[in-house]
Amino acid sequence: MTARSSLPLTFVLGLLACSVDDRALSNHPGPVSAGGAGKSGASSTDSAGAGGDEGGAGDRGFSGEGLVDGCADLDTDGIADCEATLVENATFKSDVDGWTALGDAKLSWEPENALGDLPSGSAKLRAGLARASAYQCVPLEGKQLVIAYASAVVEPGDDPEEPPQALLEVTFFQGDGCSGMIDGYFETPPGSSSEAWSTIQAGNLSKDTTRSASVALVGIKPDSSSELGIYFDNVMLKAQAP
Predict the structure, then answer these.
(1) Coil, strand, or helix at residue 15?
(2) How does pLDDT run across 146-194, given as a tens digit for each residue?
(3) Three-state SS for 82?
(4) Which end of the chain is more exposed for a tag (fewer CB within 10 A), N or C?
(5) Domains of the chain (ranges plus CATH)?
(6) How far is residue 99's CA from residue 200's CA, in Å, rounded to a whole number?
(7) Closest CA to 28 of 44, 40, 15, 45
(8) DSSP annotation string for 29-58
(9) What pLDDT, on the 0 to 100 scale, is given for residue 25?
(10) Which of 116, 120, 123 is closest to 61 using CA atoms?
């Protein structure tokens, strides 16, 4: 769904600071972080009960602010993100359906919630890999200004000086269903807060030849940590005329 309001020019210029990568790869069904062309990885998605396990983000305070009509408004445009996002199951209300974890990564539902939009939860990305991801593919037609937001919080790593990092990665494809040649991609600057939920965000232009896009929840693990644990909530991907 296209957003219904324009963005300030200064805001758009800031988002466009992350340039689209123009590498052309073929037969690439997943996000760029999944690896080279043709490598999709095995889906590894599991569900956890409301009690959670292995600790969690429950002691990182959530805020009841930032809600519009009961939904997050991370871009503060006065429009509920759940009405603007192209992503299905963006708030992880009760599960992680619609998202596919790649390789050895696991994605589970957890009761921790970034805002006060209860009942709701979050998606926890776990892996022992240096870089792990879970993605979703959405239709995206032609040249548009594409903006990605999410709430994220990380579990502290083994070295407090080298925390895990959370980011979003958006990849544009020339074919439907995230198939065919890649038109480019962009990433948000990473977030690494383990004390409170933070907002990660970025944006860029798709191309005239774009027909679909993947949005990936990405975790980066420092060498000092044996495993990463990152919570994502309120994933918002919207597009509007450039």
Answers:
(1) helix
(2) 999 999 999 988 887 888 999 999 999 999 999 999 999 999 999 999 9
(3) helix
(4) N
(5) 9-33+43-49+62-240 (2.60.120.260)
(6) 19
(7) 40
(8) -S-GGG-STT------B----TT-SS--ST
(9) 35
(10) 116
Q: What is the pLDDT of residues 38-49, one digit of tens each?
A: 333 322 233 333
* DSSP reduced 3-state for 6: coil
8: cis peptide before it, omega within 30°? no
Rounded Cα gap, residues 131 and 75, in angstroms: 27
Q: What is the pLDDT of residue 179?
A: 97
Q: Using the structure block, give the residue that is written with the tokens 């292995």.
A: 54
Sign of CA dihedral 193, 151, 206, 26: positive
Nearest one of 103, 161, 111 to 131, comparing CA atoms: 103
The answer to whether the peptide bond before residue 119 is cis (omega within 30 degrees of 0) is: yes
The two structure tokens encoding residue 172: 């544009």
**pLDDT 10s digits, 116-125:** 888 889 999 9
Residue pair 58/48 in contact by the 8 Å Cβ criterion? no
Per the listing, tokens 């503060």 go with 76
**Do residues 125 and 229 lie in contact, with contact meaning Cβ atoms separated by under 8 Å?**
yes
Residue 99 C-beta-side C-alpha neighbours within 13 Å: 31
| Predicted confidence band of residue 70 (pLDDT cuts 50, 70, 90) | confident
